[in-house]
Task: inverse folding
Protein backbone atom coordinates (compact mmCIF):
# COMPACT_ATOMS: atom_id res chain seq x y z
CA UNK A 1 0.00 0.00 0.00
CA UNK A 2 1.26 3.44 -0.91
CA UNK A 3 1.63 5.79 2.06
CA UNK A 4 2.25 9.47 1.46
CA UNK A 5 3.11 12.15 3.98
CA UNK A 6 0.93 15.20 4.33
CA UNK A 7 3.36 17.38 2.37
CA UNK A 8 3.40 15.02 -0.65
CA UNK A 9 -0.39 14.81 -0.73
CA UNK A 10 -0.58 18.61 -0.60
CA UNK A 11 1.91 18.94 -3.46
CA UNK A 12 0.00 16.35 -5.49
CA UNK A 13 -3.26 18.22 -4.89
CA UNK A 14 -1.63 21.50 -5.92
CA UNK A 15 -0.27 19.89 -9.08
CA UNK A 16 -3.57 18.32 -10.09
CA UNK A 17 -5.57 21.46 -9.31
CA UNK A 18 -3.10 23.61 -11.29
CA UNK A 19 -3.30 21.32 -14.31
CA UNK A 20 -7.09 21.38 -14.24
CA UNK A 21 -7.27 25.14 -13.79
CA UNK A 22 -4.90 25.64 -16.69
CA UNK A 23 -6.87 23.31 -18.95
CA UNK A 24 -10.29 24.68 -18.11
CA UNK A 25 -9.69 28.41 -17.97
CA UNK A 26 -7.35 29.22 -20.90
CA UNK A 27 -7.69 28.81 -24.67
CA UNK A 28 -4.17 28.36 -26.08
CA UNK A 29 -1.57 25.83 -24.99
CA UNK A 30 0.93 28.55 -24.09
CA UNK A 31 -1.61 30.32 -21.86
CA UNK A 32 -2.55 27.01 -20.24
CA UNK A 33 1.05 26.15 -19.36
CA UNK A 34 1.83 29.62 -18.04
CA UNK A 35 -1.35 29.79 -15.98
CA UNK A 36 -0.86 26.25 -14.66
CA UNK A 37 2.68 27.10 -13.53
CA UNK A 38 1.44 30.34 -11.98
CA UNK A 39 -1.30 28.49 -10.06
CA UNK A 40 1.17 25.84 -8.90
CA UNK A 41 3.54 28.54 -7.64
CA UNK A 42 0.68 30.23 -5.78
CA UNK A 43 -0.41 26.93 -4.23
CA UNK A 44 3.18 26.22 -3.10
CA UNK A 45 3.58 29.73 -1.66
CA UNK A 46 0.31 29.35 0.24
CA UNK A 47 1.23 25.85 1.41
CA UNK A 48 4.59 26.87 2.84
CA UNK A 49 3.36 30.24 4.09
CA UNK A 50 0.46 28.70 6.02
CA UNK A 51 2.77 25.92 7.24
CA UNK A 52 5.25 28.39 8.68
CA UNK A 53 2.43 30.43 10.21
CA UNK A 54 1.01 27.33 11.91
CA UNK A 55 4.49 26.42 13.16
CA UNK A 56 4.90 29.89 14.68
CA UNK A 57 1.50 29.66 16.38
CA UNK A 58 1.97 26.14 17.66
CA UNK A 59 5.60 26.41 18.67
Result:
Amino acid sequence: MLRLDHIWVSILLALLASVMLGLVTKRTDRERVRYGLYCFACFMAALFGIGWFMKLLHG
Q: What stands out?
A: The mean pLDDT is 95. The two ends are 33 Å apart (CA to CA). Residues 4 and 17 are 18 Å apart (CA to CA).
